[in-house]
Amino acid sequence: xxxxxxxxxxxxxxxxxxxxxxxxxxxxxxxxxxxxxxxxxxxxxxxxxxxxxxxxxxxxxxxxxxxxxxxxxxxxxxxxxxxxxxxxxxxxxxxxxxxxxxxxxxxxxxxxxxxxxxxxxxxxxxxxxxxxxxxxxxxxxxxxxxxxxxxxxxxxxxxxxxxxxxxxxxxxxxxxxxxxxxxxxxxxxxxxxxxxxxxxxxxxxxxxxxxxxxxxxxxxxxxxxxxxxxxxxxxxxxxxxxxxxxxxxxxxxxxxxxxxxxxxxxxxxxxxxx
Length: 274
Description:
Layout: E1 3-12, H1 16-27, E2 34-40, H2 45-55, E3 62-66, H3 74-84, E4 87-94, E5 97-99, H4 103-110, E6 115-118, E7 122-123, H5 126-131, H6 134-138, H7 145-150, H8 160-163, H9 166-175, E8 186-190, H10 191-196, H11 209-219, E9 223-226, E10 233-235, H12 245-261
Parallel strand pairs: 1-2, 1-4, 2-3, 6-9, 7-10
Antiparallel strand pairs: 4-8, 5-10, 6-8
């Protein structure tokens, strides 16, 4: 029986500076009843040292779930993190996405039985990403559009995510043409529902493994709710060497089968079928 509260699952791989910034983002949350479960897909000892140091400075508990580096196995480590979670509700994000101070409060406010929540992010260019530090997270200036633009963030319609609050953000959630999907950088749902669909399909590599999970949730009758203008995080820029045409094509085939057969469980998830 899991406790009431939130387990935040954060994926990471050999990115200590960004992970540290993300953890400082959670230190500044207004919602306090949570733990962090770091899903580490084979990082070196520097990541463990970073987590050990930050653990002594923050107010929330951190679990470090690690597996040996055998290539991109994010789905596998995420399943391990789900099993380690101590709370009944899961918020999932990445180790390159810094949450605004109300991020968890929004997920807690909108959570609903029989549903999952679909958030988005604001993608930052590299020069803006490099300007962010602990101080800009603590004073929340890294979510201020004027500060971001002064640090090289280009003017675009996506800045609305950072400027809208309250009913205006709710209106955009309801009217946006973007479909509500399970997004690994900003999504949440009940742990029981995630376990019922058997977690992530571990055959999948980079490119849509989070969306496929969401598609099985929908097939199982779990309704997605859009909160992309309410639950805000900024995405730090980095290279993506693990993205290949082969992995994208393989994942598309698996997703196509999930849609065609309206699958609710994968046989390649937490519980394996031999």
